[in-house]
Amino acid sequence: MPIADVSPGVSLAYDGFGDPGDPAVLLVMGFGAQMIAWHEDFCRALARRGRYVIRYDNRDSGLSTKFDEHPVDVGRFLDAVGSGDIPAALAMVPYGLPDMAEDGLGLLTALGIERAHVVGASMGGMIAQTMAISRPERVLTLTSMMSSTGESEYGRPTPEAQAVLLGPKPRDREGYIAAAERELVWASRRYGDPAALREMAADSYDRAYYPAGVGRQLGAIILGGSRAEALRKLRVPTLVIHGLDDTLIDVSGGQRTADLVPGAELRLIPDMGHDRPRQLWPEIIDAVVAHTS
Question: I need a surface site. Which of 44, 46, 147, 245 has the fewest CB within 10 A?
Answer without folding.
Answer: 44
